[in-house]
């Protein structure tokens, strides 16, 4: 019996350690998301993006980074403390998300490669093992360009919500590869709103103006809710069928309190506080029926957050991705859509990281004074000789 107790205690420690690592990954993604929010959202009135899609794709990309480039990426993504286990944690996360039955949730990764560039086989193998990434080649001969195939792939994988994530001519001869993450969510509310109760109501905008929006209403809706007078915010949880997933709305208690809330959430741990200490209550609820679509070029924001070397042709070290070409991240494109309506919520996102570069060649740059010779190779005669000094 003593041996059995020790064995059970050991199993309990393993389970606890696994849970701690999963929480650490969630915390890393949340920390990255809030720092990114401060860069991309403060000057926008409406915005939507997927922290999971962006964070997971960049973490997958980091598999090919080495040296200081890898260190910078891991620091910005807040995954340094997780070490190499971060990739197996994402493997588990992908499996869990794709196994949901109460809601429709599908996520996937793909890598599209320029056949002219040799890629380190281990990179392809690791992305397949840890991120279930599918690999294909660019179709440069496609009638509407190589972007068409990738755009079609993204559109199908996102339930036809994310379209044309790549503009024409995004892919050129210097594009080594394109890494893509797709995410699609479709959930029905645990307690749907009655469409007949939806009507136009006033909504006060940040500038003080009042506009009319479609407001979904419900009376005596059972939901988890809290009033936080210390941080001056009320939080409501609107659960989807199965109650594993929910939409949380953090509503400032002051009409013009959104800026103060954004400042508050910059502090470590404050976002996680939003989701704690909620209590089940019957409430009268009204929330807008809305649809938001956002496309963001993340390059400058990620550089500003400290991911500098990865975006530099001269400094980037992606030797774990390609050893015969000097490659770097040239663009990170993110597009997301969310639609909240009476029956539930449908949302989709796609993130694309464009890897560009050139094959490593001997360098000959005539940027200082030189001599020149025009010579007959057959006879060896120098026909002209001279010097150029600018």
From TrEMBL:
Coiled-coil portions: none
Keywords: Signal
GO molecular function: serine-type endopeptidase inhibitor activity
InterPro entries: Serpin_CS, Serpin_dom, Serpin_fam, Serpin_sf, Serpin_sf_1, Serpin_sf_2
Keyword Oxidoreductase tagged: no
Pfam families xrefs: Serpin
Annotated SUPFAM superfamilies: Serpins
UniProt similarity note: Belongs to the serpin family.
Protein name according to UniProt: Serpin B4-like
Organism whose genome encodes this protein: Biomphalaria glabrata
Gene that this sequence comes from: LOC106070021
């Amino acid at each position: 019996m003593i041996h059995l107790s020790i064995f059970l205690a050991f199993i309990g420690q393993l389970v606890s350690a696994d849970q701690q690592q999963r929480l650490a990954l969630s915390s890393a993604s949340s920390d990255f998301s809030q720092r990114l929010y401060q860069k991309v959202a403060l000057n926008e009135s409406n915005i939507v993006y997927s922290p999971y899609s962006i964070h997971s794709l960049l973490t997958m990309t980091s598999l090919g980074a080495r040296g200081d480039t890898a260190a910078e990426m891991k620091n910005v993504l807040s995954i340094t403390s997780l070490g190499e286990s971060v990739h197996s944690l994402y493997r588990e996360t992908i499996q869990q998300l794709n196994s949901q039955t109460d809601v429709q949730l599908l996520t996937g990764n793909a890598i599209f490669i320029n056949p002219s560039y040799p890629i380190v086989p281990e990179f392809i193998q690791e992305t397949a093992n840890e991120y279930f990434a599918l690999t294909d080649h660019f179709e440069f001969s496609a009638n509407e360009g190589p972007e068409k195939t990738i755009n079609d792939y993204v559109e199908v994988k996102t339930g036809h919500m994310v379209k044309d994530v790549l503009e024409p001519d995004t892919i050129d001869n210097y594009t080594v590869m394109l890494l893509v993450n797709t995410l699609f969510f479709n959930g029905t509310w645990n307690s749907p709103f009655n469409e007949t109760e939806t009507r136009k109501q006033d909504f006060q905008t940040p500038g003080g103006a009042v506009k009319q929006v479609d407001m979904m209403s419900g009376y005596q809706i059972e939901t988890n809710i809290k009033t936080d007078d210390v941080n001056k915010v009320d939080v409501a949880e609107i659960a989807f069928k199965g109650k594993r997933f929910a939409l949380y709305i953090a509503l400032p208690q002051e009409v013009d309190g959104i800026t103060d809330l954004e400042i508050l959430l910059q502090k470590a741990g404050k976002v996680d506080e939003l989701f704690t200490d909620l209590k089940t209550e019957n409430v009268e609820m009204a929330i807008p029926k809305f649809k938001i679509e956002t496309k963001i070029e993340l390059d400058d924001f990620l550089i500003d957050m400290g991911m500098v070397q990865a975006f530099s042709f001269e400094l980037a070290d992606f030797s774990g991705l390609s050893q015969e070409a000097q490659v770097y991240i040239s663009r990170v494109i993110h597009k997301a859509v969310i639609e909240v309506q009476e029956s539930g919520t449908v949302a989709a996102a796609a993130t694309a990281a464009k890897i560009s570069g050139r094959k490593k060649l001997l360098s000959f740059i005539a940027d200082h004074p030189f001599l020149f010779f025009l010579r007959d190779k057959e006879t060896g005669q120098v026909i002209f000789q001279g010097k150029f000094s600018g």
